[in-house]
Write the structure tokens for this entry.
Amino acid sequence: MTWTRGQYSTRLSLGGKAVLGEGCLASCDSFRRTLVFWELSGKLLEMRKSLFAAFIAACLLNTGCGRPHPWLGAKETALIGTYKKAKSYGGTNSIKGLSDDTDIQIALKDDHTAIILGLPEFDGFGDQVICKLSGPARWASSGREIALHFDKFQPQIVSPQSPGARQCYDDVSIEITGRFSPYGLYITIGDPDTGTGIELRRVSH
């Protein structure tokens, strides 16, 4: 490596060749790579924003984000219809007396009568089903819940060895869910903070 002087200004040579131009090219390449990185980073940021917006929209439309949204209120006529078990939340597989193929139906009629099939009642901890309720009932909306009262209370005892089997009640409250019609019903199991429950969706009006 030598310093040379000639007709033009002083320059640094390596192996008899000027390297000033090569250094400029290297700097330009580095700058171009930086621009490409910034461009890709911007595209990734926009993609993340789009995915986040889609996630929020799904939550607002009640298609995800954990258990269903609570009911915001509507006319009782919007609740009329037949509801069937659609989805379970939390650790329902460990609950004694409850399985994935358990059939649960609630039919709410416009005269405030109802027909119930296989509605489970749980012990206080939500560890097991103590009885199932089926038959005619009366219903009314109360706040954000459906209040059911069985006229002929004949529970099917599922866990007769449990002391809680003597505590099956003929009055049951079930949460109403959904921000838009068709609405749904939600059976909370055990501690509400655990998020364990069963969702029923309307299948007919």
